[in-house]
Request: fold
Amino acid sequence: MLWLTWRQHRVPVLVTFGFLALLGLLMLINGLGAADLPRTGASGPEMMLDMTAQRQAEPLRSVLEFLILVPALVGLFWGAPLLGREFDRKTQLLAWTQSVSRGRWLAMKLATLGTLVVVAGLIMGTMTSLWLDSYAGTQVDTRFSQVAPFTMSGIAPAGWWLFAFAVGVASGALLRRTMPAIALTLAVFVIALIGVVGFARDYYAPPLQDDGQGNADTLSGDVRSVGRTTIAPDGRELDAADARYEQASVCPGKDQSLAGLECMKALGYREIALYHPADRYWRFQWTEAGALSVLAVGLGGFAVRRTVRQRP
Amino acid sequence: MATYLQLVHQVKHALRLGMLETGDRLPTAKEVVEKLAINPNTVSKAYRELEREGLVTGKPGLGTFVTRTLGGAGLADHARLRRELQNWIHAGREAGLDIEDLEALFALVIGDSFREGIA
Amino acid sequence: MTIEQGTDMPAFETTGLGVRYRRNWALRDCSVSVPAGRVVALVGPNGAGKTTLLHTLVGLLAPTAGTARLFGHTVGQSEELLARMAFVAQDKPLYDSFTVADTLRFGKRLNLSWDDEFARRRIADLGISLRHKVGKLSGGQQAQVALTLALAKRPELLVLDEPLANLDPLARDDVMRALMGTVAETGMTVLLSSHVVSDLLNTCDWLVVLNGGRVQVSGDLEELLAEHRVLSGPAELADGLARRLQVVSDTRSDRQATLLAHVGTERLTLDSRWSERPVGLEELVLAYLRSPEASSLPRPSLATSA
Reply:
């Protein structure tokens, strides 16, 4: 089965690792060029105005934004055709009547390709982490606070790639045709990505609150900001819209100005910034990768069960 | 005619013409069906029929062998009789008989001869 | 797990087999039992359920009702059972991007009992280069490669779905000769489906007729032909005779009636005005196909051998 898996899937595997090699090379070259950038721990005003680090990182940083879609390609080219192409060409009638049961056939393929996918994802994550390390202490290393760096560094890519692969395989098992499976895979992946990136990621742990009074150490470095909320004197939490509404009634006439804020403060309203300190990076990485892996395994199990069922 | 009987007939024909002699091995079922695309059971059935008639005998693992020929005449006799028959046919055609006339005449004489039981 | 091989164990057997796709029954109450070593012709019009029956026997489909058995074992996902049979699907699917060598390697890697020597020799004898991509071969060559894959597995049962369709007469002849040669050599059972009866005339010795998802006929070909007769006689006597016999087809004109009947093994006593003659294979099959209600099987269908 090992030989067969390789023989049938060698193109996407080779293309993927080739791409990783190329990307790695670019990151290496770029990272070496960042060696003599000025860095400090704190983000003082001089730091904020010094764009040399950003300029050095630039081509790759923008590319990184696009690369969060790469897992989709894994789903499309590793996952969907696995079952889809067999059904398209009716070769499942050949493959499943040798001496290997279809359950074992699929399980072996999933195990082999799944392992390769995870390895590739880990390579991706490690390369990105190392590249970001070469920008440590500059404005570029926003691996916790920004969408693309977080998704592409650490172990998150392994989770996303495995997840996308599993979505592809499950789509193929469900729809039994490559093209519709590709469409479904893309749709599910995009929805999942938006859901995680836009929402779920902020709540892997309860956010800390910053009322502007201090907590300097947790606020330093690559802090992940979640949003702002207002606490009323009686302890109620108000979101931005409600806060403005209340402000209009308790501090009339002052609106958005500084005077308005002073008025609210005087009445006992506190404005809190919600955030996650930088040291939560790895915890969040494990949470995300873990959740995606569990989903992937579930989808894989679904695909195997559906395939073994022998329905017409 | 059933296929297996056709096969029996062909073997007997070969025996008569001396193409097969005592001790010769008949082609295996596999050899026959690879040439003729017929069911191997048909071949087995034909060989069993020939064995029943005492013409062949099957030796497991070795094949099916001819045990006696038909007609009793050797190859030399065949050659002579064939020549004589050719002469007769030639004479008949010279006399103006066509193929159907000759066949009818032949059938008449051969029928008489075997009915009377004399050579 | 040892798989016993009794000499009277049917090669394959279905009992009340039914397969349903959504609302329609592709097969209904099918019961056949075929002994080993036979060459079985499965005939019937397109859409009769031949492919469904074959797919169920090789484990590609699960029955909705009834059972299917190979060598006495219920068909499922058992790899030992899978190893004892080989299947060539309709249109002989192969991996087009594989070379012929890859294809043989596929057979070798995925099968327990694989005769690689045999496979290579056969491909070489057919003049097919191992380096060619399968997709580039001619239809006849692809059919031969697909057949080689199946034969090299050394199966006890070989199942083929319309193996002769889309083949030129030369290729058809080659395929049948190869099949018969292997049957002669190994005694394997062959089950092949066709909607062209004349292809199967000299090669098959068991006939199964499938019509509208139901089995009309299943039996030894010689016995079937011996047990059916075509009777011609006066129309006014036809009804009387039809009541006594299992009639398959009944054609009447003003004065003449022609009945194709399953008369069984007993001797028939007929009025002298009736004449009878034996029936040919194509004639028999056509008669059954035209009369979907007719069946040569006893009803209700029960399982036969142990």
Q: What stands out?
A: The radius of gyration of chain B is 18 Å. The mean pLDDT of chain B is 85. Chain B touches chain C at residues 3, 28-30, 32-43 (CB under 8 Å). The first helix of chain B runs from residue 3 to 16.
